[in-house]
Amino acid sequence: MKKKSFVLAALCALPLLAFSEGFSLKQCIDYANKANGNIVNANYDVEIAGRKVKEQIGTILPQIDGSASYTDNVLLATQLIPNFLVAGSTDMLKVQFGTQYNLGGSVQLTQKLFDPTFPLVLKASKLSETQAQQSLKMTKEQSAYSISVTYFQTLVIGKQLSTLRSTLNTSAKQLTSTELRFQNGMAKQIDVDKIRVSFNNLKSQVQQSELNYAQSLSNLKNYMGMPVSTGIALTDTVMKIDNQSLEALLTDFNVENRTDYQLQKIAMKAFEADKDRNKAGYLPTLNFTANLASSAQRKTINFLDSSEPWFTSSALIFSLRVPIFDGLQRQQRIAQANLNIEKSKVKLEQSKQTIQVDLSNFENQYRTAVNNIMNEKDNLALSESVYKNTQLQYQQGMATSLDLVQAENSYNESTNNYYAKLLNLYIARINLEQGKGNLLNYINNK
């Protein structure tokens, strides 16, 4: 019955396996670059910043406006003027000026001829676009980091689960064999109980590991922006640790590769551009305006009557604006910009020091992780050898059930330690590459 149930469960799992698409780490990150909500919004921010640059360029191009108006003077205003028709008269004449119906339209062109602040404002807009691009890069790096850590965590849990299942299968065979020996009077009840306890513990570990694997895989899909219901399989089996010497790996660093450092440099350049813009505000500006207007005045609504006149006017205007005194506002803005620049310099130096400290810690973590995995690998091989020899001795009656259980526990502990150290190694390498600002290049060249 147990075998039939296992076969039935395997057959039920086949459709899920068939619809699980394989994903390498690079494919997971490529998928996230298109589907992760944070990256999608960061791409929108880049496009918005680009549109703002074009908007700023539009301010220096000719501005053309058209206008039209229609007026119905239902009651014309009455004006009193001296009676100039009668000499010496003190009476006032009541007159009404204008017509009841007026229609007019005009077109006006405005062009900036000289505006010293324009190139500086345009520079600030381009800095904002560069900042958005760097923010997009940082968002991608953060997404790649989360995906990388979760990918290898899932991978390690999967390897550990496979080992646990293999050990559980071996333990089940040992339990069946011991029960048979007990029935034949060749083993004690306590031997059966000890092995059964060990078997049950292993079974619980397998179930917990299966849960951990499912949760880790769901987290990975969430970081990718993939629906949790989608079936995926991890195709990378191990992180490739290249043959590059450890010293070369740890010294290959340039702070300029760090995106957060670049963002702080852009912020300082923005303050410098703001300072230059305010200084340019002391210079005069020159604008040109051309206006063409036409209007008609009628006692009746007959604006389409060609016999009635339309009156046209036009004007060319050059306007020069010279700043004289603004209450020292601009001077205070320049002083603020200078202070912000000095603050940015301090923050930039602090960031450089923090990055170097973090990188030093990541280097030490990676060195330790490399050494630890070597030790744990040897321990695992030794405990596996002891476990197999103890199994053989137990089958031959040369070892007790206690010896078998202890060897099995020791092997499980060594397995858990090995995979924990393996995950630490993977995370240490990811942290190191991120600390160097090289994570995306490292993943793309894996």
Q: What would you say this structure looks like, in words?
A:
The protein is α+β, with helices and mostly antiparallel strands. It has two domains: 18-60 and 115-284 and 326-444, Outer membrane efflux proteins (OEP); 64-113 and 288-321. Helix content is 65%, strand content 15%. It has helices at 2-18, 25-35, 37-58, 118-183, 189-224, 246-251, 259-280, 329-395, 401-435, 439-444; strands spanning 21-23, 63-72, 78-82, 92-96, 101-114, 232-234, 285-298, 311-321. The protein has a four-stranded antiparallel beta sheet with strand order 2-5-7-8, with no helix packed on it. Strands 1-6 form a two-stranded parallel ribbon. Helix 2 packs across helix 4 and helix 4 (118-183) packs antiparallel against helix 5. The radius of gyration is 41 Å and the shape is elongated. The model is unreliable at 1-18 (pLDDT under 50).
Topology:
Elements (H helix, E strand, L loop, with lengths): L1 H17 L2 E3 L1 H11 L1 H22 L4 E10 L5 E5 L9 E5 L4 E14 L3 H66 L5 H36 L7 E3 L11 H6 L7 H22 L4 E14 L12 E11 L7 H67 L5 H35 L3 H6 L2
Parallel strand pairs: 1-6
Antiparallel strand pairs: 2-5, 3-4, 5-7, 7-8
Helix pairs in contact: 2-4, 3-4, 4-5, 4-7, 4-9, 5-9, 7-8, 8-9
| DSSP summary: helix tally | 10
Distance between the termini: 47 Å
Spell out the CATH superfamily of the largest domain: Outer membrane efflux proteins (OEP)
Rounded mean pLDDT is: 90
Largest sheet: 4 strands, antiparallel
- Helix-residue proportion: 55-70%
What order do the strands of the largest sheet run in, or round the barrel if closed?
Answer: 2-5-7-8
Spell the H/E element sequence. Answer: HEHHEEEEHHEHHEEHHH
CATH topology of the largest domain: Outer membrane efflux proteins (OEP)
**How many DSSP E strands?**
8
The CATH architecture of the largest domain can be named as Up-down Bundle
Beta fraction = 5-15%
What gyration radius follows from the Cα positions, in whole Å? 41 Å
Shape: elongated
The overall number of domains is 2
What ranges have pLDDT less than 50 throughout 5 or more consecutive residues?
A: 1-18
Q: SS-based structural class?
A: alpha+beta
Q: Class of the largest domain, according to the CATH hierarchy?
A: Mainly Alpha
